[in-house]
Design goal:
15 helices, alpha/beta, seven-stranded parallel β-sheet
C-alpha cells in the first residue's frame, strides 16, 4: 500500500458523513472522533455531504464550526442539490485524489460514496463504519454492503457484536474485514443552568421518565406512549418527556391525543441543553426496535441515571439486565411500563443501577477509548496490516 508523501509524517484523514452532528448519534460520534484524533499524528478533514443544513439554529452550527476551526480540523461542505447531483462531489474527489491517505465514512449513504469515490481517487485506505443494523427486507442494501462497500473497504467497522454477526450471517460480508469498535462519549458539558422541572412546571414529587432521540420509526416511541398510559393508571401523575425532532412527530402527536395523554407525554423538540435536561429525569428509557450502540444510553449512564431499555442490537453489550439497568423485550408496552414502575417504586434499586451504569460507562465507553481504537486501526491499515489483525473479526 503506497501512501502519499507527507512531509510532517502525519496521516491525512477525511471523515465523510451526511450531517454536522447536531442530531443523530452516528454523525455526532463521527465529529467527536475527528476532533479528538491526535493532531501530531493525523491531519484531519471533516466533510459533510448535505450542506448547508437549515434544520438547526445558526448559532448552534456556528459553535460547531468554531470548535472544528479551533481544533485545527479543515471543514468541507458539499452543496448537494439532490441525490444525483454528481458535480457537487468534485471538491471531495479532488481532495481524496491528491491530499488524503485515509477516508473514513459513516452510515450507509456515505459508505457507498466513500467506497465509490475512494476507489476512483485511488485513496490508499478506505474505512466504512456502520452504526446500526436492521436490513430485513432491503436486498439492495445488503447487496451494496457486501459487493460494493465491503469489497472496496480495507476495514468495515461495526459498533456491536450483534451487528457484526448479522453482517456476516445475513449479508455475507467477509469476517476478515470486520472490526468491532464500541461507541464512546466525551464528558458531558452540563452547566447546571437548566431546571427542567421548573421550566415545565413539574412538581418535585411527580415522577419524570425521559428519552432523547431522533423521532423516527426505529425508536418505537408509540410503544413508549402506550407504556405511559399504563404508568398513568398506576401512579396517577407522571411525566414522560421525549426530547428530539424527526419525521414521526405527527404520528406521535396523534397517538398522544388518542390516548388522552396531552398532560402526561410532552414532545420537547430539539434541544441544545440535553446534558442539563436529562438530569431532571428520574428514569431514562430507550424503547427502540433496533439499535447499534446508542449514544443516548451512554449519556444516561454517564449522568448516573437508572435506565430501562429494550434488549436490542448492542444494548445488552452495554447494560447487563439487573446490573446497570433493566432490559425488556421490544414491542411490549406492558412489560416496559412494569420495568419503569419497578425502578420508580424501588429507590434502592434505582440508586444501585445508576451507580453501576456510570462506573461502566467511564471504564468502557469513554470517547477516548473509541478514538484510541480508531487511531490504531488507521495506523495499522496504513502500514499494510489486514483488518483481521487489528481488532475483533
Amino acid at each position: 500500500m503506497n501512501l502519499r508523501a507527507q512531509r510532517d509524517g502525519r496521516l491525512r484523514v477525511v471523515t465523510l458523513v451526511g450531517g454536522i452532528g447536531l442530531s443523530g448519534g452516528a454523525e455526532r460520534l463521527a465529529r467527536d472522533v475527528t476532533l479528538r484524533l491526535d493532531p501530531d499524528r493525523f491531519e484531519r478533514t471533516f466533510c459533510v455531504t448535505r450542506w448547508p443544513d437549515h434544520r438547526f439554529d445558526p448559532e448552534a452550527i456556528e459553535r460547531v464550526m468554531g470548535e472544528l476551526d479551533d481544533r485545527g480540523v479543515r471543514f468541507l461542505g458539499l452543496d448537494r442539490r439532490g441525490a444525483y447531483d454528481l458535480p457537487s462531489w468534485r471538491p471531495l474527489l479532488t481532495i481524496l485524489r491528491n491530499e488524503t491517505d485515509i477516508v473514513h465514512s459513516h452510515l450507509f449513504g456515505s459508505n457507498v460514496w466513500g467506497a465509490v469515490l475512494g476507489t476512483l481517487a485511488r485513496t490508499p485506505v478506505v474505512v466504512a463504519h456502520e452504526h446500526t443494523w436492521s436490513f430485513q427486507g432491503q436486498p439492495i442494501r445488503k447487496l451494496l454492503d457486501r459487493r460494493l462497500i465491503a469489497s472496496r473497504a480495507d476495514a468495515f467497522l461495526a459498533v456491536s457484536r450483534l451487528d457484526r454477526d448479522r453482517m456476516i450471517e445475513v449479508e455475507g460480508i467477509d469476517p476478515g474485514k470486520l472490526i468491532i469498535v464500541p461507541n464512546g462519549i466525551p464528558e458531558a458539558s452540563a452547566t447546571g443552568s437548566v431546571d427542567v422541572r421548573a421550566e415545565l412546571g413539574i412538581a418535585p414529587d411527580v415522577p419524570v421518565v425521559g428519552t432523547v432521540c431522533v423521532l423516527r420509526r426505529q425508536k418505537a416511541l408509540t410503544m413508549l406512549i402506550d407504556a405511559a398510559a399504563e404508568l398513568t393508571s398506576r401512579f396517577g401523575r407522571v411525566q414522560v418527556l421525549i426530547v428530539g425532532e424527526g419525521p414521526e412527530r405527527p404520528l406521535l402527536e396523534q397517538r398522544i391525543a388518542e390516548l388522552g395523554l396531552a398532560d402526561t407525554v410532552r414532545l420537547l423538540g430539539h434541544r441544545d441543553d440535553v446534558p442539563d435536561l436529562i438530569r431532571g429525569f428520574d428514569v431514562a428509557v430507550c424503547s427502540s426496535d433496533f439499535e447499534g450502540t446508542p449514544l443516548s444510553i451512554l449519556e444516561y449512564m454517564q449522568a448516573g441515571l437508572p435506565i430501562v431499555a429494550t434488549a436490542v442490537g448492542g444494548v445488552p453489550d452495554m447494560i447487563e439486565d439487573g446490573v446497570e439497568g433493566l432490559l425488556v423485550d421490544p414491542g411490549d408496552p406492558a412489560g416496559f411500563a412494569a420495568a419503569v414502575a419497578r425502578v420508580l417504586s424501588e429507590p434502592d434499586l434505582a440508586a444501585e443501577l445508576a451507580a453501576a451504569a456510570r462506573a461502566r460507562q467511564q471504564k468502557q465507553f469513554d470517547v477516548d477509548v473509541t478514538v484510541g481504537a480508531i487511531e490504531r486501526i488507521y495506523e495499522g491499515l496504513a502500514q499494510g496490516r489486514p483488518a483481521a489483525e487489528l481488532g475483533s473479526g
